[in-house]
Amino acid sequence: MTTATASRPETEKSAFDPRVEGQRLIKEWYAELEQANELGQPVANVFVMGNAVEILRAFDFKLVFPEINSLQTGVRKSSEEYIRLSEDYGMSPDVCSYVKADVGLILKENRHPVGRIPKASLAIASNMCSTFIKWAEIWERWLKTPTFVLDLPGQRAAGWQVRPGDAQHSADSRWVEAQFAELIARCEKITGKKLDLDKLAEIEDRVNRMVGHWNNVMMLNRRTPAPYNAMLDGLTYIGIMNVHRGTQEGVDFMRRLEQHLEAKVARGEGRVKDERFRLLFSGTPCYVSMRRLVELFENWGGVFAYSDYLTFAAGGMDAAELRYDTSRPLESLAEVTAIAAQRGLSNQFFAHERLAQQIRDYGTDGVVFHGIKSCRFVSSGMADTREFISRLDVPTLYIESDLIDPRYWADAQIKNRVDAFFEALGQRGSRRAS
Amino acid sequence: MPEAVYDSQKELELVLERCNEAVREPGIPPGLPEGFSGTLGHFPVYFPEEIAHAAGLLPMALLGGGNRMEMKHADARMGSFVCSICRSTTEMGLNGSLKDLSGFVTHPICDAAKHLAGIWARNLPDQVSQILYLPQNVNTPGAVRYIAAEYQRLRGVLEAKTGRKVSDEALRASLRTYNRNRALLREVYALRRDAPWKLSCTESYLLTRARSRMPCEEHNALLERALAALAHRKAPAQDKPRVVFVGGFCEQPPLEMLEAIDESCYVVDDDLLIGMRWLTADVPEGGDPVWALAESYVERSAASPVQHDARKSKEGYLMEMLRGANADAAILTAAKFCEPGLDDQLAWSKHFDEVGVPYLVLEFEEKMTSFEQMAMQVETFAESLLFALA
Ligand code: SF4
Ligand code: SF4
User: Fold this and answer.
1) Contact A42, A60 (CB under 8 A)
2) For range A276-298, the mean pLDDT
């Protein structure tokens, strides 16, 4: 089932610019979406955590990621307009701003800064973030979008040791498989097609290869200097991991990205010119002030070597180096989905365990926590996790803003805190220097 | 000595005083009742208390810290945007008032609630700290089997903690005790529906909440006494509109808020403390008790904003509540920062706009201390309803 990857000429390799290429792929994806309804293609709304994309792709669904739509309104500086529309409609200021931007989109009849978003014939909401379900209920209510809640058993306690094939994992996988069976029946009904298992296996094989490269990409940032900024550059990478999960373009992008970063490492070239501090970023970025946020840290020679966002927002499969067994595509899909949900997604609720390990893996000097007003999934336990990490004698910084709501970005206050953090780090000295 | 004459009013006062005393302090009541070796704290909403009860752990519904608790620790441990019940529960974990719990169990009702398990694990590592993963998809065949496995897992965790096996017999006995409790609570709510002038929402709330700090057996006895006394209660019906109250499924509104509503309305049904009465009918007492409990979650559990079930739309179950209680209107509340509650509050109000049901929107926090403005709003609402209904 493995497809050999054609080697490309060196010139093309070095010409690869992940940001440009990533943007091109995202643009093309949106362009395709624009025509989906007219062409009568099936369309599914999915979230980045727990989504059965492999099954949907096997039925040729076009995929809409509402979270990406919402973040794109932030990147394009138009989120406030969408958020205000939803608040004028009656939505509370205290709920997830992604949901509000999406309600704004519905109120604007699907007109998005990148183009027209098609109407979905199915929505899959997992329970990994509880807001996904509330969000999907809005579509059910307004747009009559049929919803499938994919319930993934998560990490139940700290120190949770679930291993592939043990009794707990088998029971959890059986539950996931039962849901996949129902989902497949739904997809067959919507598309009028039968599930093609060979096609599913091919998609899984491509995901395997993407995840293989993805793991290597992560590993490369354990090197000093770090070749990329996990928070800024990482976002483009995650975008492709989601939007192109299981496509040949996705495999090619990840392979070339890995080569590109390897070459950077070989040249000793880091993301920041003079890397002084290696940092871990916990939480999600602020898309409306993305460049500014990065600049505040990079001006001090601080680079984000890792961000937990890279794991949970990319499906969580890297957390356990998971691979599909393509000779049993359906069973394996359930098994991998179940374990990824526990080790790579819902482990957010016990984030201290993962962070404590990653501080060692990435040789970081400190951890930056970004509390997101509207995202309780990443933020509710964050201040307490910070307290725990501080007890390990690791310097930490806590800042608060929002994903896409510009009203919560307090520049002067954030800058002061960042500056004070670096001054303290400077006095302490980098871990590498000591 | 002459035999004491049964005074129903006095009896009711005694029962309510016992309830008040039980719930006055949000922490663990002093002394363990006979037959229990420890206490198990559980966060709303859907916890199968029967399993803890059978394991000899007194189930303690953790319902927040109320409006008299001083926050010393939690503000620094939780973002400013997290609901009050999560903050006050964290405070109680950190300030020592829950330090003697054997364990703490939360559920995937929302992300803030899930995070409490991590907070507990980091700060109270000697206690069992768990997320009971109740499914948000109960419509796929296999859900009962999955829930049963999750309940068995909890049973195993509690057995390991207490060092004592939980037999099927013990579980069946707990089912019977709780079935009795469910029947009694249904009677309490039937009385509210049929003769709301006899029992206020605040009183019924206290009667229900008392179980959060006492064994179910004792609670059953109290409810029996209360119902007997209420049968004799003479209270004239007043000119008040019949309303349902929703939004109290997790964080609890302060008693003063309920009192303010009672002043002007008859609350003929509500979702207050729904986590203490979420099984809407008896759990079958024959057969495998864990399976019976799991099947009951799927087939006979109360709807709420934090449970997804394709058979129960949020608008549908609220309309059902209104019809069942023969109510004229609804008070749609949500706890501040409660995302699921706020989302559904909006959905409900939009639906009521469409179908022409009068409603009042209120936001609350368990830590609220000022109610005058709210009381005025409710009064104005009630007056407008009476005017419209006249
Ligand atoms: S709460 Fe957070 S994880 Fe959930 S949908 Fe909103 S932004 Fe995404
Ligand atoms: S009150 Fe709402 S947000 Fe808070 S724990 Fe309960 S359901 Fe979650």
Assistant:
1) yes
2) 94
Q: Which ranges of chain B does DSSP label H, i.e. alpha helix?
A: 8-24, 49-54, 74-77, 84-94, 111-123, 143-162, 168-194, 201-209, 216-232, 255-264, 289-299, 314-324, 339-355, 372-389
Write out the two tokens for B85: 């019940």
* Token pair 């201390």 in the structure block, residue: B369
Residue ranges around ligand 1 (CB below 6 Å):
A 67, 96, 98, 129, 131-132, 375-377, 403
* Residues of chain B positioned with their CB less than 8 A from the CB of A151: 135-137, 140
CB atoms within 10 A of CB A159: 9
- ipTM of this model? 0.96
Is A130 touching B (CB cutoff 8 A)? Answer: yes
Other beta carbons less than 10 A from residue A11's beta carbon: 7
DSSP secondary structure, B35-75, as one string: T-SEEEEE-SS---HHHHHHTTEEEEE----TTS---SSHH
CA distance A385 to chain B (A): 8
**B91/B69 Cα distance (integer angstroms):** 9
Among chain A residues, the shortest Cα distance to B315 is held by A141
Ligand 1 centroid to residue A41 C-alpha, Å: 28
Cα A99 to averaged position of ligand 1 atoms, centre (Å): 8
Chain A contacts in chain B segment 4-33 (CB below 8 A): none
Contact B140 A141 (CB under 8 A): no
Place of tokens 């009385």: B191
Strand, coil or helix: what is A121?
A: coil
Among B106, B110, B252, B306, name the best residue to mutate to test ligand 2's pocket (greatest count of ligand atoms within 8 A of Cβ): B110
pLDDT tens per residue across span B2-25? 667 888 999 999 999 999 999 998
- Provide CB contacts within 8 A for A125, sequence distance 6+: A47, A132, A133, A135, A136, A147, A148, A149, A150
Residue of B nearest to A154 (CA): B133
Question: How do residues A163-218 score in pLDDT, each as one tens digit?
Answer: 999 999 999 999 999 999 999 999 999 999 999 999 999 999 999 999 999 999 99
pLDDT reading at B78 higher than 50: yes
Question: Could you tell me if B368 and B254 are in contact, meaning their C-beta atoms sit under 8 angstroms apart?
Answer: yes
Q: Which residues 6+ apart lie within 8 Å of B186 measured at CB? A: none
Quick check: A374 pLDDT over 90? Answer: no
C-alpha span between A243 and A87 (Å, rounded): 29
Q: How far apart are CA A306 and CA A364, in angstroms?
A: 9
Q: Residue B235: CB partners within 8 Å, gap ≥ 6?
A: B197, B198
Nearest chain B residue to A183 by CA distance is: B140
